[in-house]
Amino acid sequence: MRKFALHVLTGLILASLLLAACGPTTTPTPETIIQTVEVEKRVVETQIVEVVATPEPGPTTYPRNETIYVSGAAWGPPSTWNPFQPGMLANTTGTIGFLYEFLFNYDPLTDEFIPWLAEKGEWTDPTTYALTLRQGLTWSDGQPLTAEDVKFTLELGQKYAALWFSPLWTNTGLTGVTVEDDTHLTLTFTDPLYQEWDNYLFNLPIVPKHLWENRSEEEITTGANENPVGSGAYMYLTHAEDRNVWVRNENWWGNEIFGKPAPKYIVDIRTSSNNVALGMVVKGELDLSNNFLPGIATLAEKGYVKTFYEKAPYMLSANTAVLFLNTTKKPMDDARFRRALAFAIDVPSIVNVAYANLVKAASPSGLLPTMSKYEDADVIARLGYTFDTAKAKQMLEEAGYRDTNGDGFVESPDGSEIKLQVTCPNGWTDWMAAIDIIASSAQAAGINIEAAYPDYGAWNTALQGGTFDMTL
C-alpha cells in the first residue's frame, strides 16, 4: 500500500460488530429472520435474511467447556503467521494479540494505555523516550524476552522499507535505539511526532531476535512464519482450510499478572459470508462473532446473542470504515473531484438502510465518539461535508466535470469518459449494501460508479497492488 497514494475519504462509520453466544457445534437447519426496519422519511422496509447452513466442520474437535469459537476476522484459508505481512493478513488469524504482543495495549473507552510488555514509558525530554520492560518476560520457547528484542524489532523498520512500520524512522522522527540493560531502552528522536509514536506503542508487535535475526528480507517481510514462536497467552496449534486453532500457553509470563485465560483452545472459524455466520450464531456454534448479523433486534429478543446495548445501535462502535480512493488514478487524483464525491455519498441511507441503525455516522474527521476531544470544530465546519446531491453537482460543474455526451454522467475536464468501480469483498453483506448506496448516490450526482464484489483474495490483491479505483 505504501507504493501508491491513497486518499482516505472519512465519514462512513461502519462499525465492527461484537456479539456473544454459546452452545454445541451442530449443523443448523435453514431459518428465516424477518426484521422491520424504519428508515428516513418514515418509509418502512422489511428485510428478509436467509440463514445459510453451516459448512462442514474441520476434522478435529475440542472439549466444548474449554473452547471458544470465534469468527468474522478470517476471510481466506489461514496462510501466514507473520505479524509483518503486508495488509496485516496475519491479524485475521489471531497471530497479533494471541501470539505476538505489543509494548502497551490501549483502551479506547477510557483513552488509557495499559502496560503490557512494557512496564512504563515516558518522555524524559522533548526528544528522548525512556522505555522500561517488565521483569521476567519470556518467549513461548522458554527464551527470555529482553530489550534486545525490542531494539531488533524497531530497527527492522529502519532496515527494510517494505515493512509497514518503516515510517517510524522516516516520518515519526526516530533516529536511534540504545539498550541500557535487559529491561531498559532509550529512544532518541528528531522533531518527534508524539501521537504517531503513541500509535506504534500499541500496534507494533515485538518479535524474537534469536529466531528472526538470520532471516532474509523476503522471509521477514512476506514469509509465512510457520510454527511461530511468540510471547503471548496462546500458541499456534494447527490449522485447516476453514479454521486456525490456538492453544493456551501454560507458561505465559502474564499468568501471574493478568490471570490465566479461561479458554484452553480458541478456534477461529472462516465463514464464507455473514449469512453463514448468522446461521452458526443461531445454532450456538459461535461464541464470539465479528460479523455483521442482519436482524439483530430479533436475534437479541430471542436470546441468540448478547449485545453491548439493549437497544439500537446494539453494538459499540469499534472502528471507522473508510472509503479509500486510489489517487494514482484519474479523476481520484483531483482534490476537487474527491470533495464533490464526499458530498454525493448518501451516508444517512448507509446508516438507516444498509445497517438498519446498528451504527452511527462518523464526523468528517472519521474519529469515533470516544476520540471527539481531538476534533477541531473550526476545521470541520470549514472543510467538512454532508450529503447534498445538488451541491455535489455544483462542485463537479465548477471543477470542469460536465456531461458532454448526454448519457447522464459527467466526463473529465479533458473530455475523457469516467467509469469507476467501488469494491468490497463478496460475502461482507453489510459492506456490499453500503457500496451499493455509494454507487447509486454517486450516480444520482452524475458520477458513473458501479459496485463490484470480488472474492476476498482478489480484493486484497487489488488493494495491495494498487489496481483498484475505490474500496471500503
Automatic annotation (TrEMBL):
SUPFAM superfamilies: Periplasmic binding protein-like II
Name by which UniProt lists this protein: ABC transporter substrate-binding protein
Keyword flag Signal: yes
Alphabetical list of InterPro entries matching this protein: Peptide/Ni-bd, SBP_5, SBP_5_dom
GO MF annotation list: peptide transmembrane transporter activity
Keyword annotations of the record: Signal
UniProt KW Signal keyword: yes
Cellular component per GO, a single term: periplasmic space
Domain Solute-binding protein family: 112-471
GO biological process, one term: peptide transport
Signal peptide: 1-20
Stored PROSITE patterns: PROKAR_LIPOPROTEIN
